[in-house]
UniProtKB/TrEMBL annotation:
The protein, known as: Enoyl-[acyl-carrier-protein] reductase [NADH]
Active-site residues, as the UniProt record annotates them: Y148, Y158
UniProt KW keywords: Fatty acid biosynthesis, Fatty acid metabolism, Lipid biosynthesis, Lipid metabolism, NAD, Oxidoreductase
NCBIfam families: PRK07370.1
Family: Belongs to the short-chain dehydrogenases/reductases (SDR) family. FabI subfamily.
Length: 258
């Protein structure tokens, strides 16, 4: 029943084969979507090569650089989509970053520069990409981002990213309200802790995973594929009545009090 055949999906944030974005891209492709991928450009082209080799089996028809701190690159990426596809149906936002100074020590000691950078990349980028995608979603669409429990509750060593995710979750709600009349839905998945390149920056990530495995109702954490399955559902017509929501895919951990 889950069919994305003919849908054009842009996936951001793939870094390696452990990325949640990679799990999402695979499941969208499996459901029949045409895949487009962005990568973070660097001087030596390492990310372009690494991400390009990884996503090659998905046969992406769009593969473009996009540094969300560079408005010109955002514009260029979506111009490429307009020329190649003519329209966009699905936007996957899997972008987050906080400097080590924002993830360790006292929260009150976080430098202003680290605070500003984290919110620009992790939170405002959803707004930037949505603004660029909006004109291309002429037939409606689905926008999906990734959040974490640390956006609503205090998680050790998450610090600044908690603020960024809280802002991201409210951005989902405001964007859903704005874009609803255009039949564009905006949702977020709050995934349980998974070992990824991004999560490795959070101190004690393995302890967090082991704790979830002991406490969560399913007595385990989740996989990238499970998050990808939920993403595919939320981007499909099966979820046509769902917008502005934070969907927890965390083996039930969020419901527990102790």
């Amino acid at each position: 029943m889950l069919d994305l055949t003919g849908k054009n999906a842009l996936v951001t944030g793939i870094a390696n084969n452990r990325s949640i974005a990679w799990g999402i891209a695979q499941q969208l492709h499996k459901a029949g979507a045409n895949i487009g991928v962005t990568y973070l450009p660097d001087d030596k082209g390492r990310f372009e090569k690494k991400v390009g080799e990884l996503v090659d089996p998905l046969n992406p028809s769009i593969f473009v650089p996009c540094d969300v701190q560079n408005e010109a690159q955002i514009t260029s990426a979506f111009e490429a989509i307009a020329q190649k596809w003519g329209r966009l149906d699905i936007l996957i936002h899997c972008l987050a970053f906080a400097d080590k100074e924002g993830l360790t020590g006292d929260f009150s000691a976080i430098p202003k520069a680290a605070f500003t950078q984290a919110l620009e990349i992790s939170t405002y980028s959803l707004v930037s990409l949505t603004r660029a995608a909006k004109p291309l979603m002429s037939q409606g669409g689905s926008i999906l981002t990734l959040t974490y429990l640390g956006g609503v509750k205090v998680i050790p060593n998450y610090n600044l990213m908690g603020i960024a995710k809280a802002g991201l979750e409210m951005s989902v709600r405001y964007l859903a309200s704005e874009l609803g009349p255009l039949n564009i839905r905006v949702n977020a998945i709050s995934a349980g802790p998974i070992r990824t390149l991004a999560s490795s920056a959070v101190g004690g990530i393995l302890d967090m995973i082991h704790h979830v495995e002991k406490v969560a109702p399913l007595r385990r954490t989740v996989t990238q594929v499970e998050v990808g399955n939920t993403a595919a559902f939320l981007c499909s017509d099966l979820a046509s009545g769902i917008t502005g929501q934070i969907i927890y895919v965390d083996a039930g951990y969020e419901i527990m009090g102790m």
